[in-house]
Amino acid sequence: MYSRKTQLVFKFLLAVIVLFSLTFLWIEPVEAVTTCTWQGTTTDWYDTDNWSECLDGSGSPTYPNDTRDVIIPAGQATYPVLTGYQDQVDMNTLTIDADAQITIDEQTTFLANQVDNYGTIRIQDVNGHNLRIQAPFNNYGVVNSGIYAALILYESGIHTGTFTGKQLSIFQSPDTERINTFQIGSSIDVSIIFAGEYNSINIYGSVISGTTYIRTNSVVDISASQSADLGMIVLQGGEIIASAYNISSGETFSGTGTIESNVTNAGTVSPGASPGIITVDGDYTQTADGILEIQLGGTNAATPDFDQLIVTGFATLSGTLNVSLINDFEPQVGDSFFIIDHSGEGSSGTGTFDTVSLPTLDGGLKLESDFSDEGVTLTVIDGGGSGGSISGTVTCNSTYTVFVDIWAGNTEPPPYRSITINCGDSYSFTDLPDGTYYVGAWIDLNESGDGPPDLGEPYAWYGDPTAVEITGGNSQSGIDITFPSSNTGAIEGTVTCDSIHPVFVDLWASTTNPEPELSTTIACGGSYSFTNLPNGTYYVGAWIDLNESGDGPPDPGEPYVWYGDQTAVTITGGETKSGIDITFPAESFQLFLPLIVK
User: Fold this and answer.
1) Helix, strand or coil for residue 13?
2) Which sign does the torsion angle of CA 31, 32, 38, 40 carry?
3) Would you call 232 helix, strand, or coil by DSSP?
4) Using one digit for the tens of pLDDT, what is the confidence trace for 492-540?
5) How confident is the model at residue 204 (pLDDT cuts 50, 70, 90)?
6) Which of 21, 100, 212, 501 could form a Cys-Cys staple with 193, CB 3.0–4.6 A?
7) Whether the predicted pLDDT of 175 surpasses 80
8) Alpha carbon distance, N-terminus to C-terminus of the chain
9) pLDDT score at 11
């Protein structure tokens, strides 16, 4: 017999042996990383015959999975084409050799630990197609997304190659900063660059973009680029760094954020979305052709309720200041708005605007601009309340809003004042200084809410036009305006699509115009109608407001479809053109960053 102590030792050893045996039974074998090399005779990624040395655990041929290193070598007669809708392609790493290629013919996601392209990635030029690379990605070759497709990067990368096509997007990071560096010799030539939240994009090569969106906590640095043209920049809380930034005539710099550069504005600067604040961390020079757009929606500068331009360096002012009211704001006497701030340490300013366009205020109030060493302030003062008046009625046959404009001295835009009424109502302009005036009215067919009138919106003058004189503060009544009966037509149809989001239907006089003449919103399957159209040629298109922003233009990824292939619709003799129907194809779903919506 064994002693009790010996028995306990044996029992302990037996328990240990059993425990280790069970542990080995529970551990699943880990599949070692192996290499799958493309040797395709067809384009099918999932055809096991297209892969060399790609075997599963039993030694049978397979296609790549998340444990495989994938190589696409040069010299192949056939290369892979990925055609699965919203297909996720798993692999450990992917290397596309020089002179090799992959084609994306749908919406595809690469999910890997590393992707390196020395060859060509081609995204077929179809609206809605895109490639998402959810892996660190280095492009030493070519990525081409055509004029309709998009490339979306989710991780950091270093790039010496070329990016061309519609959209290059760096997706938002949930917590940590992603860094994408485009080195000397790299090239970007796209319609849209989208920098999502928490991204740093450093461009040392060349870049051309039609529109560049920069989201909160993101930075785009072009200060050391070989050449840079970012087109229209929209700051959405982000920052741009440049050695010098020139806004050319016809270009717009807008949004909320910071630009670390000296800025020369010969185009348009429009803070906010609105309202908002643009900070120029450097000098700001506005030329004679430059325009600064400021909107006032309240008095709180911190919120902000009104647009502001902050300059940390030297501000030189010229050109035009356009001020307008938003959000039904009614300024009161004593309200002030510090719209240009160059009051910081080391900051200063000089010059004034050549033209200042201020809104007309009710109750005889007016805005007064003040240029000081600290900046530019607008203040509401009492205009005095003395002066003449012009009144009358407007006769027309329409349910749309009527704008009545009064012009001082001549009929060159913009008008001196404007008010809105309905057809058949009376209007009155009071507190008019002595002088010569002209009165006109127009019907806001697309209910845009402001002027000038768009193409096709009828305009009528008092007389042809006839001058109205104010002398000694007299009142001129009976200045009536009548819209003649016009021979106008209509365009109507339906829009077929599969979406719960609003559909905007746009009417264009030319497809090259920057914005449509008329626009209306309907639901998928609904009907639309544009009426009171003068004789002429028109084009009709529709787009789905995936992010429900409520206005145009469509954001990146929001699908747009034309009637026909931009087929002209001609109105002659005031007829109604019906059956101008638009159908969205089933594959029109498109990624909108940072949302993914179907």
Assistant:
1) helix
2) negative
3) strand
4) 999 999 999 999 999 998 887 888 888 999 999 999 999 878 777 899 9
5) very high
6) 212
7) no
8) 78
9) 56
Phi-psi group of 374: left, alpha or beta (phi > 0 → left; psi -120 to 50 → alpha; rest → beta)? alpha
Residue from 357, 347, 569 nearest 451 by CA = 357
DSSP state of 411: S
What residues have CB less than 8 Å from 46, skipping those under 6 apart? 63
Question: 282: left (phi > 0), else alpha (psi -120 to 50), else beta?
Answer: left
Helix (H, G, I), strand (E, B) or coil at 142: strand
How far apart CA 228 and CA 242 sit, in angstroms, is 9
Token pair in block for residue 317: 């002012």
Bigger pLDDT: 12 vs 225: 225
Distance CA 136, CA 5 (A): 60
What's the rounded mean pLDDT across residues 423-440? 87
Model confidence pTM above 0.85 = no
Q: For the chain, list the domains and their CATH numbers.
A: 248-385 (no CATH), 388-482 (2.60.40), 489-588 (2.60.40)
Q: Six-digit token pair at 13? A: 């050893």
Burial label, 559 (beta-carbon count in 10 A; 0-12, 13-18, 19+): buried
> Residues 127, 104: contact at Cβ < 8 Å?
no
Sequence-ordered list of residues with C-beta below 8 angstroms from that of 165, at least 6 positions apart, any chain: 123, 143, 144, 145, 146, 147, 149, 150, 151, 190, 191
How does 241-271 read in b/e, with b if 16+ C-beta sit within 10 Å? Answer: bbeebbbeeebbbbbbbbbbbbbbbbbbbbb
Sign of the CA dihedral running 373, 376, 379, 384: positive
Residue 146 neighbours by CB distance under 10 Å: 16
Least confident among 11-15, 246-250, 299-303? 11-15
Helical segments of 126-166, H only: none
Q: Note the pLDDT tens digit of each residue in 39-78.
A: 989 999 999 999 999 998 888 999 999 999 999 999 999 9
Residue 101 CA to residue 452 CA, distance in Å, equals: 52
Contact 153, 136 (CB under 8 A): no
Could you count the other beta carbons within 10 Å of the beta carbon of residue 586? 10
State the sign of the Cα–Cα–Cα–Cα dihedral 594, 596, 146, 502.
Answer: negative
Q: How far apart are CA 399 and CA 445, in angstroms?
A: 9
DSSP for residue 578: -
